[in-house]
Design brief:
241 residues; seven-stranded mixed sheet; binds S-adenosylmethionine
């Protein structure tokens, strides 16, 4: 629920408009700069009208037109944004689209993007990634990251995981053929479901030791927490067929 129900930046969609999204939308109270970033910078960085609440007619959103000549990479569920900001700094030729429905995290990431002078190379979709994939007229993403997705540990909740056809099929449609999906998780049963479901959605697993990160790996906030708590990271890469 919102911290300040009168603030429109905190309540963009009604419960009835939220389609099968089970994660947190709001957390603790936002600081003034965070509120300002959500009110001023987020509308500039939202890739057109991209969500059910501001694109009720589901008009197509052409991301390639936003970044002519640049490969576009995707991060789903970017949390505080450390990883995608690192990607942008380490790869000055790429543009990055981040999807994250938890507004406190969006505000944290916006601060990093602004402080890093990276505004021109980012678009932020502050909502369920599927809503963006479904309005993209053509595959755009040349690379994708799904890092420590919500584990949903109870077996009756496994169908809520991102690695289900409801999410993977639209993701496949948004990625260019040959693009690589990078998945990291600390949950062994999430590894099992990833190895089952991602190939079924039209991806081929790339060789690599499951406990060795890929080149260029930058640890995330959630991974650091997992390591502190004694859980072991797993890294998997899949080529979009
Ligand atoms: C466990 S956190 C990990 C955050 C970050 N990747 C890290 O490693 O620190 C998972 C994040 O995925 C986001 N998320 C869950 N479902 C999503 C969806 N359908 N689209 C985009 N983000 C989603 C959640 O809001 C949450 O911030």
């Amino acid at each position: 629920m919102t911290d300040d129900p009168a603030d429109p930046t905190l309540d963009p969609a009604s419960e009835t408009e939220r389609r099968n999204f089970y994660g947190r939308i709001h957390g603790k109270t936002l600081r003034p700069r965070q509120k300002q970033l959500l009110a001023d910078l987020l509308p500039r960085l939202s890739p057109g009208a991209v969500s059910v609440f501001d694109n009720p007619d589901r008009m197509p959103v052409d991301l390639t037109a936003l970044f002519p000549g640049r490969p576009v990479w995707l991060e789903v569920g970017f949390g505080g944004g450390e990883h995608m900001v690192h990607l942008a700094q380490a790869n000055p030729d790429v543009a990055i689209v981040g999807c994250e429905p938890f507004l406190n995290a969006v505000a944290m990431a916006l601060a990093k993007i602004e402080d890093g002078g990276l505004i021109d190379r980012f678009r932020i979709h502050p909502w369920d990634a599927r809503e963006l994939f479904e309005v993209m007229p053509a595959p755009v993403f040349a690379r994708a990251y799904l890092l420590y997705p919500d584990p949903w540990p109870k077996s009756r909740h496994h169908r809520r995981r991102f690695v289900t056809p409801e999410h993977l099929v639209p993701l496949h449609g948004a990625m260019q053929p040959g693009a690589v999906l990078h998945v990291a998780t600390d949950i062994p049963d999430y590894v099992r479901q990833t190895l089952d479901e991602v190939p079924r959605a039209g991806f081929t697993r790339l060789a690599g030791d499951i406990h060795t990160p890929w080149d260029g790996w930058h640890s995330t906030r959630y991974e650091k927490k997992a390591l502190r708590e004694g859980r072991r990271p797993h890294y998997m890469r899949f080529r979009r067929d």
